[in-house]
Structure prediction request, 457 residues.
Amino acid sequence: MELTEGVSRALHPSEVGGRYRRRRNALSVFLLAVFLLLPWLRIGGRQAVLIDPWNGQFSIFGLALWSHDAPLLLFVVGGAAVALAFVTSVWGRLWCGWACPQTVFVEFVFRRAERWIEGDAVTRRRREAGPWDGERILRKALKWALFTGFALVLSHSFLAYFIGTESLARMMSEAPSRHPGSFAAMGALTAVVLFDFGWFREQFCVLVCPYGRFQSVLMDERSLAVSYDALRGEPRRGSPGSESREGDCVSCNRCVSVCPTGIDIRAGLQMECVACTACIDACDSVMDRMKRPKGLIRYTLGRRADTAGALVRPAAYLAVLLAMIGGAAWVISKREPLEMTWVRAVGAPYEQVVSADGSRDVVNHFHVDLLNQTFEPLRVALRPGPGQASRLAVVAAALPLEVAPGRSRRVDVFVRFGPEGLSEGRGLARLEAVLGSDAWAKDLTFVKEVRLVGPLL
Ligand code: SF4
Ligand code: SF4
Prediction:
């Protein structure tokens, strides 16, 4: 959409072929497949990627996270933001032109369908200027029906990342009245997708996208950018000065006609440029026909000759990124399926009891906090660990202890032991915790050391 003297008119960028277009086509097929198929990928029987803030449950390629893992999520989200800043500082708007869902869906799905139904850019412009005849109405209706179908597929796929494919399939098989909230969310999302990809298009990149707004801060003149070689191109054909020496630009305006944001790259780098490379392909084909070298418009890196300080900004982003990756790796390496915290109960530090055989045992009372960090219900059995004296018993109200997925519970546990293992009233118990789940092929075992207290012998 372009504003001309206060009137907005739809932009119809011409189609373009070329080496960058072919690469972007291939990448878009890959990215579309990833977006549509990823929610259906299963790891260990669970959805591989699930972001369920309502239940505080997140799955990232098999790694089960809960809302209590907020520090780790902070590393993941912060790392993604810093990675984007690093990529932007070095490669400019590479993300926008090649991988952003806005670009991929608009250019490779919606605009492609539009060309198929309404014809190429010239035909569409001609029809736009003409009357609303039957053919135009029919083509528009067909196009918007197809757009609505795409929007429904996209919004359902998008929602599958948040509510899970199983819930999605169940909701789709039931009446909307049973899930009015989800149905309303789906309807609203479909409407937004339809509005954005069907009509608003690159205006989102220019007017709305916060990342687009940050570009100017993250990029500098050393970042990769699509630019016009003015030294070679000017004076362009038909411009003042071209009578004596004509540059390589033949003023065909092909670079402008293919631009999805409607700008002229020859005017210099502009915020509206999403680095889609369409003008590179367009100009290369013109240069080919004119038997001149390609690259009048091309990717350029380091447009500023001086290199002083060139690496400072990317190096700083990279350092922060590596620190965040390191932090996330450290947190993940320390993470166990079950977090178990033993706290001595307040009151008497120990009790002494007499066994049936007349021996005197000591009992220590603990509050044990159990936190299940998996997506499965867990059973936890406690028993004397390897190398532990035989006179040791673990008593709780109900063993094995059951802990629901992502939940924590506190249980009272009593450790009963013979006082002969104590030294100056202190000792150490090696306990073995056995974790089991119906979803696991075999149990997990880990050893927990617990400090004991008893009488001075
Ligand atoms: S496509 Fe190339 S030759 Fe044509 S106007 Fe643009 S820069 Fe000049
Ligand atoms: S100026 Fe070129 S690279 Fe930038 S948005 Fe327009 S066509 Fe794409």
Q: What stands out?
A: The mean pLDDT is 89. The chain has two domains: 1-40+92-304, 338-453. The radius of gyration is 33 Å. Residues 338-453 form a domain with the Immunoglobulin-like fold (CATH 2.60.40.10).
